[in-house]
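Quick check before the chapter quiz. The format below is the same one you will see on the exam, so make sure you can read both the input and the output lines.
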Amino acid sequence: YGVTIVQHPQFHAQKQPQKAACILANTGEVMTYAELDALSNQLAQLFYNCGLRAGDHIAYQMENSHCFLQIAWAAQRSGLVFTPLHSHLRPAEVAYILENSGAKLFICSPRYLETAQQLDRSTLPAVQHWFISAGEAPDFDSLQAAMGECPSVPLAQQCAGVPMLYSSGTTGQPKGIKPSLPEQTFDEVPAVMQGIAAFLGINSESTYLTPAPLYHAAPMHSVMAAMALGGTVVMMDGFDPELSLQAIEKYRVDCSQWVPIMFIRLLKLPEAVRSKYDLSSLKAATHAAAPCPADVKRKMIEWWGPIINEYYAGSEGVGMTLIKAEDWLTHPGSVGKAIHGTLHVCDAEGEEVPAGQDGLLYFENDLIPTYHNDPEKTREAMHPKGWMTLGDIGHVDEDGFLYLTDRKSHMIISGGVNIYPQEIENLLVTHDKVMDAAVIGAPCPDFGEKVVAVVQPIDMADAGDALQAELRDFLAPSLSKIKMPKQFDFRPQLPREANGKLYKRELRDEYLAKAEIETEQA
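Here is the expected output.
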């Protein structure tokens, strides 16, 4: 993908102005390329009027919406660095990102107004402009009103902007992956974006479905790639399994991207619902973001056919593996071979381990990113040889295929034994009565930590001792006694990110607080 293509939504607005650039699956609302071009130009003019210049930073927190994309494309053609914020972030985390990034302008939608109103502006002097989209609120300017005063023509000097994304903060403060402003002009499709589009099966004629939130790297980059190439994006505001099937049928979706929890919930639909929709238009379904239980993926391939591809990567862009359905069927559980960066598997001392042995995964690459204004987090991610880790544990087989075991930060140490929760979670979610599961280590006076399974049943009426006993019996043939959860708790919902990642930190903090209270009372 070394050849740079000169394409951009502005060209599609000229050639096919009434073509749908984006459709909201939840409402059917359409944004044409002409509308996207005009509104992103108005926003770019507004940003300029606010004093923003190339290299300046903006941030915004909102759900998947047409406005979300208008802001992204406005920043992209203004030379700005733009950060969309996670929906789960607490006010303190939002404030941290605004301060850490040096954002000069902040936009929120009404859905996140309460979070924005809790921010102490006196501690955020760099943020000079506060806007609310699609609404009004004290101390916030109306984005639409301000845009309305701006012309819908391009800036006199357009240059390429770039997203700067932060980690979800599931294991600590969010980390910003510091970008470099692109060397190409704003209207060129960079090689990496071309590669993403090609892998996902996106071209100018594609209809691409994204059920995930755009504040994550994969959805953000893939949606912008689809629009740069002139395809149509079908976007969901929150994942709903049946709605996604409806969208595939209604809009004749041919390519899509998912996370494993979405597959799990699709498979939990009644057979009558699953077979109700015509999915024959779908030619490529790609998934990533978390390990997929092998049984779940096998069932999805049986349902949708060998069109389900997978990759492993991170927002850092330091490395990537890829596996197609055909290779996965002969290497079940693998996330593929490295196609970007050189993969290294190392022990605790940083020495490389042989095939088949678990270790911390590192990628070697010519370009290694840094975490913005956080040299300590950058240092923690580095190997002495200059390689970078995303924090995952895994191993490679004799054929060079990578298998993920779990996140290093999720590991439970019970009685001196290392236990990886992912193995237990992958088993639990395949039970007919389980919708979701999180396995964590909770404080234990005897063993340091004990294994706790927090389970979301399909029906909360099933929660109780009988289901606990059923789950123990279900796990027993596959788990050693040390891995068997010592405690099962049932909840109607787990703190899971819309991109499929569990907020295990919330659960661990909760169980730690309970243990401290119990210790004090004792």
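If your answer matched, good. The chain is about 30% helix and 20% strand.
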